[in-house]
Specification:
Structural class: mainly alpha
Shape: elongated
Largest sheet: none
Number of strands: 0
Number of helices: 5
Distance between the termini: 98 Å
Order of helices and strands: HHHHH
Helix content: 55-70%
């Protein structure tokens, strides 16, 4: 389908230009280089770097080098492919090292990025924990202040015992007589 052309008013010399349609996706452009998923490549490089850092890799690499050297020393002359200074072996080891170093660096960079994100999350979590602890500390302090003003059962009991002793002292016969105001449930101060 051809793009719509804008219409120009009659009498103008402007050339018509193609109009971009916003209701349809653009056609895919051909790329010269192949596309790849950077995350998939990063995961592959991490797997390779992890393997290069194992004892298994060292054992396999040692076995390959030993077989290579023994083959090129003990095999018949026509079957040898790398003579004594083992230049081809040196080239292969250099090639392996030239690929291993960037892969290891890429894996380290990805690990650094993950560590940075984890540290940031830990820092935010620590800030929230500190804020929560400070809030709870303030709440406990407020409760302590509030409890200082609350009458406890022991305090009320001791006050009542003191009141009973005072009333017994006023009326020496041992009977407790309450004033009429207290019987009706009203206190003198309530008037």
């Amino acid at each position: 389908m051809a793009p719509d052309r804008e219409r120009t008013p009659a009498g103008t010399a402007a050339a018509p230009r193609p109009r971009t349609r916003l209701d349809q996706p653009l056609p895919r452009r051909r790329r010269l280089l192949p596309e790849w998923d950077p995350e998939a490549f990063g995961r592959l490089s991490e797997r390779i770097a992890r393997f290069l850092g194992t004892g298994r890799f060292i054992v396999w690499m040692t076995a390959v080098v030993v077989v290579w050297v023994v083959w090129n020393i003990a095999a018949p002359r026509d079957l040898r492919f790398d003579q004594y200074p083992f230049i081809f072996l040196t080239l292969m080891l250099s090639l392996q090292a030239s690929y291993a170093a960037p892969l290891i660096l890429l894996a380290q960079n990805r690990q650094d990025d993950r560590d940075r994100v984890n540290l940031e999350q830990d820092r935010k979590q620590n800030e929230r924990s500190i804020a929560d602890t400070e809030y709870l500390t303030r709440e406990i302090a407020a409760l302590r202040v509030g409890l200082g003003e609350v009458a406890t059962r022991d305090w009320i009991r001791s006050e009542l015992e003191d009141l009973v002793k005072e009333l017994e002292e006023r009326h020496g016969d041992g009977r407790v007589v309450f004033p009429a105001e207290h019987v009706r449930g009203r206190d003198v101060d309530d008037r």
